[in-house]
Amino acid sequence: MDIKLVDTVAQYHEIKAEVDASIMDLLEKGQYIGGAAVKQFEAELGAYLNVKHVIACANGTDALQVALMGMGVEPGDEILTPSFTYIATIEVIALLGLKPVFVEVCPETFGLDIHDLKAKITPKTKGIIPVHLYGHSADMYSILKIARENGLFVIEDNAQAIGGEVTFLDGSVYKTGTLGDIGCTSFYPSKNLGAYGDGGAIFTQDDFLAEKIRMICNHGQKVRYHHESIGVNSRLDAIQAAILSVKLKHLDRYNASRSQASLYYNQCLKDVEGIKTPFVAPTVKHVYHQYTLRITKGRAKRDAVKSILDKKGIPNMIYYPIPSHLQTAYLAYGYKEGDLPITERLTGEVLSLPMHSELTYSQIEYICHHFIEAMRETN
User: Fold this and answer.
1) What does pTM read for this prediction?
2) Are 16 and 153 found together in one domain?
3) Phi and psi based region of residue 297 (left: phi greater than 0; alpha: psi -120 to 50; beta: remaining)
């Protein structure tokens, strides 16, 4: 059976006519950088997220870096963030001369552990970057409360959770990425809302921040050749914006398909001992960027199961095998093995199975059959 970890080709064929027409229109007009297509996509995404400002940029990493630059950070400032994340979250902190302070995560949601977050605030702490990992929101209600009490900014890393939602105690519902001072996302092709190249975006409700961020993305200028601040060159191609405008119309349907696939996975795997299927908090709409389960008998068992799946041609992935605080590039910050025991344990347990909006029930049954066999073979 032909199964892909992420099937961007099947998704394209379903919307081929719309996408092709949007691309050909831009080619006929000769519009490649900026212009109406980018402005249209920014407006449409802003309306979808119910956020005042969307600033498109070149990729998700740039989005995080520009967001930090927009907050006026200075070298030596401390930023609280999880170690259990894709390295881009940490990379931008280091590139700006800031200090990442690694916070433990909740083993169920993979979001920041609130007690450890509080404990690691110091006079040098300036901000928090929570990560909505695998499509499940971090505990934003508690994070925002802590940030307000301590005068800290919040930048949400929403690269894996576009379209996700959080319901607060008063019943109000918010899209992930719109709750902090700034939200950031990636349009890498495998994302829930993926381009056919690279891309990213920054969101904010703050007029001043939005203007500053737009300037930073455009070499620090509002008026051409008048550079008011140090900036970068980070732009979303017009063709990618046109493609994303088409795909945004289908995003809720894509996410609903992912949710249905996850429910079927859960049903197929409900009697398997030694695993934990994805947890979903009652206040969260999970968008399943990944279907990530935990093999609770540890790294050796997980790696053995992965090896069997690899040999049988069942796509799978470990996101992420080495926590950021133990990566060679970041050892200079002084962390060592044992400093974040929950994070370190999770990186030895997690395994992601195929997840995309075109996944069929028969494919899921096939995947689960071989996964269950692999679990038995490694006992």
Assistant:
1) 0.97
2) yes
3) alpha
Does one domain contain both 162 and 117?
yes
Q: Average pLDDT in the 34-52 region?
A: 97
* Helix/strand number for the chain, H first, E second: 13, 15
Q: What is the pLDDT of residue 124?
A: 98
Helix (H, G, I), strand (E, B) or coil at 60: helix
Would you say residue 3 lies in a domain? no
Q: Of the candidates 248, 269, 296, which is a domain's last residue?
A: 248
Residue type, 266: N
Structure tokens of 63? 């989005």
Pairing of strands 99-103, 125-128: unpaired
Q: Are residues 148 and 268 in the same domain?
A: no
Q: How is residue 86 written in tokens?
A: 């894709």
CATH number, position 178:
3.40.640.10
What pLDDT was estimated at residue 31? 86
Rounded CA separation 374/255 (Å): 29
Lookup: tokens for 37? 């297509």
Q: Is the pLDDT of residue 224 over 90?
A: no
Cβ contacts of 90 within 8 Å, gap of 6 or more:
81, 83, 100, 324, 327, 330
Pair (53, 194) in one structural domain: yes
Asked if 323 contacts 83 with a C-beta cutoff of 8 angstroms, the reply is yes
Distance between alpha carbon 236 and the CA centroid of its chain, in Å? 18
